Amino acid sequence: QMPNEVTIIEVGPRDGLQNEKAFVPTDVKKQFIKKLKDAGLREMELTSFVSPKWVPQMGDAAEIVADSLTEDTRDIVLAPNRKGVNRVYSTNCRAVAVFVGVSNTFNKKNINKSTADSVAEITPIIHELKEKGYFVRACISTAFYCPYEGKIEPEATLKLCKAFVEAGADELSVADTIGMAAPHESFALFSLLKKEFPHILITAHFHDTRKMALTNIYAALQAGIDRFDTSAGGLGGCPFAPGAAGNAATEDVVYMLDRMGIRTNVDLAKLIEAIDLVKPHITRSIESSYYQLHS
Ligand code: HMG
Ligand code: MG
Fold first, then answer.
1. Among the bound ligands, the one closest to the CA of 139
2. What span, in angstroms and rounded, lies between the C-alpha atoms of 77 and 89?
3. Rounded to 5 degrees, what are φ and ψ at 288?
4. Rounded to the nearest whole angstrom, what is the distance from the C-alpha of residue 186 to the centroid of ligand 1?
5. Which residues contact 195 (CB under 8 A, 6 or more apart)?
6. Quick one: which of 106, 46, 103 has its CA closest to 79?
7. Which residues line ligand 1 (CB under 6 A)?
8. CA distances to 11, 164, 165, 250 from 225, in Å
9. Half-sphere exposure (CA, 13 Å, Cβ side) for 177?
10. Of ligand 1's atoms, which has the minimum distance to the CA of residue 205?
11. pTM of the predicted structure, to 2 decimals
């Protein structure tokens, strides 16, 4: 049973830009976020409160948040640790995404800790965030494959998801970090997660390294998933995951869903304007089919 409506979580300002080598001017990022909201995107990752030494592009997180929060939208920021969450507390942002990799090796490269140590650090932080009334999103990296460890067993992904659900997370965003999952794997894992966690928001996050993001999204739809992380222009990639290309492009996903009669409430013409605005400041080319046909 396909959903009638899908929620798109726009990750362009965060995942999309974090890997860009040249610093995108803060004002351009702010305008990009405004245009994306204007296009109807109601849930968005704005930026991350990570170490600016590790990810210089996100060094302007506080400024971005100060300018970008709006009512009736879910404006999310990433935070990897205590220091990051304390930085969030000095803003008015009310939704935090924590992130951990199923793969130990990847997690070590990304946040300099083993997966178990990360969970141990983040669990009490989630309790605290929930007590304070925050929305908590848990991003699960390398849920299918790891650039260092290869195939990840669904049981291992399930175990990490359980830890976050038990800690009180509102949402699981389950990621194919290096774009290596195939549709049958997408269907199998998301069917399993839907069955295990019927009362948790479950979101699929596909990178498009091997051009399988759209088919993986279709398979996840068939498994009952109605929330997808996508990035305008298909920008993105994790700096600590070699081989991670951009995310599924918002415009290609919205186009497919439109054609299937599934509502997203995203205005494609305005979305193109948002991409046009950021394009002069990024080094990679925009490869999404919809953008190439309509820009
Ligand atoms: P570390 O070096 O082990 O941490 O890094 P540390 O505690 O030793 O701190 C080192 C320095 O960073 C210190 O500064 C800290 O104060 C500072 P110094 O004293 O040397 O001047 N610091 C911070 N500054 C600002 N904000 C903070 C913060 N924490 C420490 N929060 C750390 C550990 C977690 C900080 C680092 O590894 C890090 O920032 N990692 C983030 C990596 C990242 O952003 N990756 C991309 C996002 S995840 C992703 O893209 C995947 C996803 O899209 C899903 C998918 O596709 O798989 C979500
Ligand atoms: Mg990602």
1. 1
2. 11
3. -65, 145
4. 29
5. none
6. 46
7. 15, 18, 48-51, 53-55, 80-81, 83-84, 87, 99, 110-112, 139, 141, 175, 177, 205, 207, 238, 240
8. 18, 19, 17, 16
9. 29
10. 56
11. 0.98
| pLDDT values of the chain reduced to their tens digit, one per residue, 295 residues | 899 999 999 999 999 999 999 999 999 999 999 999 999 999 999 999 999 999 999 999 999 999 999 999 999 999 999 999 999 999 999 999 999 999 999 999 999 999 999 999 999 999 999 999 999 999 999 999 999 999 999 999 999 999 999 999 999 999 999 999 999 999 999 999 999 999 999 999 999 999 999 999 999 999 999 999 999 999 999 989 987 899 999 999 999 999 999 999 999 999 999 999 999 999 999 999 999 999 8
pLDDT at 242: 87
Indicate the top mutation candidate among 15, 17, 50, 118 to test ligand 1's pocket, ranked by most ligand atoms within 8 A of CB. Answer: 50
**230 C-alpha vs ligand 1 centroid, how far in Å?**
23
Which residues are close to ligand 2, an ion, with C-beta < 5 A? Answer: 15
Give the closest residue (by CA) to ligand 1 atom 43.
110
Q: What is the pLDDT of residue 20?
A: 94
Question: Per the structure block, which two tokens stand in for 117?
Answer: 């140590």
Cα(201)–Cα(203) distance, rounded to whole angstroms? 7
Helices (H), 174-232: 183-196, 213-222
Ligand 1, residue 84: give the atom nearest the CA.
31
Catalytic machinery residues: 238
Token couple for 168: 């009180």
Find out whether 38 and 275 touch, Cβ atoms under 8 Å.
Answer: no
Q: What atom of ligand 1 comes closest to residue 111's alpha carbon?
A: 37
